[in-house]
């Protein structure tokens, strides 16, 4: 591959009307070089630069990252991570052994940690990486403190000045997150909900009349644990500076960085937000075609009564969301909103009892004006009783039938805050999957936003199915799969095994072959070849109407294992990563028809335009065909 391929792909995408072409990959999956690998990937590693260059050469114009927050020692899910602090695991250790960082980490310490890493090169060794990273960063912090105390200049003096400025700029979240770290360590790593000391549980949310005592206790903790607080801030500075360098590197390659604003709230953030949470309630996913039993996420719920203050000012809940959105969007060029239902019409259930049963019988927070089993939700409702369709289950998209503009504006309160922080609202990707309740549809429409079309999930028996590509709108985001789905290669094999491959091939022929071509013969041949079905389903992403295409790294590179299996706890979840030689592996699989062929897919999509193909530069198709042939012969 070369930069000429990028120019070809970009020209083809423009001819097809594709606005965004993103590669989705989480930070842990990035490749690292052997000498820097302690069991966990990071976009800031030396090895990660190869992936950015690879994506640029293939014609992508952006990278969709996962949530950047810190995760606990026992839970690697990035969707349970912190909302403000960046993960210490995102800090690349190798640069800290070099002069620009004052050689704060001994090279032999990194070498020993990398040599002892137990993980195979394609998997994250999460527990090991969490501990090894913590030890290395503790060494960095101790070395910095000692050398600053000696009055050392150069890189150390520069780092000290940057740290002071960073702490001033981010004092709001840095202080509270660091305090949680201190208190959690005091309580053996337990969640704040289990801390025996009520004064610790309510440190940032004291009862009326106890504010002065809590403030005095907070100041005392900050003074007593000043070194630990500073160490926490130093690690956060390193993570933020390295992320900014990744963003600069990506921009130089023509790549935007998209962040991920997850619907959940970490325990650390719930502790900080305790005073404006809806006590006794949790957020989850309602029953759906993907999971008929729903999903008991267990996430905290913001109290709508805390959205606004006197005179329409920001209340603490809105202020919290605004600060979070502002930070994330200041560090990225766009954002994927994970389950925007949680910002508009969250599905809630009581925090007591069996969570699986509770989530199945839950309700939507803002559209439950008179449910006999949830009378507490009535004061929080926006939809009125006369606006509900009682013939439907209350999780159904059509449960609410009508809304006036004032009601839509109330529903939009939190999403509006996120949109206001975006440079270009078109770069806000709303992960709306099989369900789109009427209030959510009205809210995203007012901003001209789309939804996700996951074509591997399409229902061929329903012409109006949301996952069929032909039903998309220009503002939608279309993709084969995401971090929660099986790789397209295994899905295509399941079509063959289930005897539905011919129907899929016929649908693809109607989408990809212009009138006059032998669609029946093409469908017959494709139905016998799972690889051909996967490649054709990829090409279909580009034929419209959706103008935003997102490709998961597991699909692009021909992986056969899922990245995450929703509703399960397993060491395999969130652990897939790319080896240093990923590009050679991709070339071999692409040549064998077992990895996605970008120029080949674009050539097929262009030919699907039929008579409109005349508007395309005559030699573009030939150049794409030649690039595809070179890949096939690799």
TrEMBL record:
E.C. no: 2.4.1.25
Keywords carried by this UniProt record: Carbohydrate metabolism, Glycosyltransferase, Transferase
Coiled coil: none
Record-linked Pfam families: Glyco_hydro_77
Record field: catalytic activity: Transfers a segment of a (1->4)-alpha-D-glucan to a new position in an acceptor, which may be glucose or a (1->4)-alpha-D-glucan
Transmembrane segment boundaries: none
Matches recorded under SUPFAM superfamilies: (Trans)glycosidases (SSF51445)
Family that this chain belongs to: Belongs to the disproportionating enzyme family.
This protein's name: 4-alpha-glucanotransferase
Organism: Anaeromyxobacter oryzae
């Amino acid at each position: 591959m070369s930069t000429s391929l990028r120019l070809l792909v970009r020209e083809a995408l423009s001819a097809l009307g594709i606005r965004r072409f993103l590669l989705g990959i989480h930070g842990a999956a990035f490749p690292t070089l052997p000498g820097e690998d302690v069991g966990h990937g990071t976009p800031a590693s030396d090895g990660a630069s190869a992936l950015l260059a690879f994506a640029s050469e293939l014609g992508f114009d952006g990278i969709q990252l996962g949530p950047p927050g810190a995760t606990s020692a026992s839970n690697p899910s990035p969707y349970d991570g912190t909302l403000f602090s960046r993960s210490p695991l995102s800090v690349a250790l190798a640069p800290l052994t070099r002069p620009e960082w004052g050689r704060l980490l001994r090279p032999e310490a990194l070498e020993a940690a990398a040599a002892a890493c137990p993980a195979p090169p394609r998997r994250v060794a999460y527990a090991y990486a969490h501990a090894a990273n913590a030890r290395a960063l503790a060494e960095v912090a101790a070395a910095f403190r000692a050398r600053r105390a000696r009055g050392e200049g150069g890189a150390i003096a520069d780092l000290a000045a940057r740290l002071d400025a960073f702490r001033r700029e981010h004092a709001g979240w840095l202080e509270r997150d660091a305090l949680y770290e201190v208190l959690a360590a005091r309580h053996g790593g337990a969640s704040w909900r289990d801390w025996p000391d009520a004064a610790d549980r309510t440190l940032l949310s004291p009862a009326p009349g106890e504010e002065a005592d809590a403030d005095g206790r907070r100041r005392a903790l900050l003074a007593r644990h000043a070194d630990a607080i500073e160490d926490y801030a130093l690690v956060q500075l390193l993570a933020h500076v390295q992320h900014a360098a990744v963003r600069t590197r990506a921009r130089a390659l023509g790549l935007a960085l998209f962040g991920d604003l997850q619907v959940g709230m970490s325990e650390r953030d719930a502790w900080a937000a305790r005073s404006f949470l809806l006590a006794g309630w949790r957020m989850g996913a309602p029953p759906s075609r993907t999971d008929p039993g729903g999903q008991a996420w267990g996430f905290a719920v913001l109290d709508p009564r805390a959205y606004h203050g006197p005179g329409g000012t920001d209340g603490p809940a809105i202020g919290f969301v605004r600060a979070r959105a502002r930070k994330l969007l200041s560090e990225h060029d766009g954002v994927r909103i994970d389950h925007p239902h949680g910002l508009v019409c969250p599905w809630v259930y009581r925090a007591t009892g069996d969570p699986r049963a509770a989530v199945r019988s839950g309700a939507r927070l803002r559209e439950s004006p008179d449910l006999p089993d949830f009378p507490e939700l009535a004061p929080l409702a926006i939809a009125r009783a006369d606006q509900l369709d009682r013939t439907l289950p209350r999780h159904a998209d059509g449960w609410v039938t009508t809304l006036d503009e004032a009601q839509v504006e109330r529903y939009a309160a939190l999403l509006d805050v996120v949109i206001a922080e975006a440079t270009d609202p078109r770069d806000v990707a709303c992960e709306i999957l099989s369900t789109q309740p009427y209030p959510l549809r009205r809210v995203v429409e007012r901003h001209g936003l789309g939804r996700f079309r996951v074509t591997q999930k399409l229902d061929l028996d329903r012409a109006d199915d949301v996952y069929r590509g032909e039903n998309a709108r220009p503002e939608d985001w279309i993709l084969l799969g995401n971090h929660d789905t099986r790789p397209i290669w295994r899905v295509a094999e399941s079509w063959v095994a289930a005897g539905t491959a011919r129907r899929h091939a016929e649908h693809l022929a109607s989408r990809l072959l212009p009138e006059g071509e032998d669609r029946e013969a093409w469908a017959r041949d494709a139905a016998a070849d799972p690889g051909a079905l996967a490649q054709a389903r990829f090409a279909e992403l580009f034929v419209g109407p959706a103008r935003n295409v997102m490709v998961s790294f597991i699909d692009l590179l021909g992986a056969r294992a899922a990245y995450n299996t929703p509703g399960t706890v397993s060491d395999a979840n969130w652990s897939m990563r790319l080896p240093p030689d990923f590009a050679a592996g991709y070339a071999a699989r692409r040549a064998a028809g077992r990895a996605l062929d970008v120029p080949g897919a674009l050539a097929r999509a262009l030919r699907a335009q039929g008579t409109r193909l005349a508007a395309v530069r005559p030699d573009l198709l030939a150049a794409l065909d030649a690039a595809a042939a070179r890949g096939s012969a690799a």
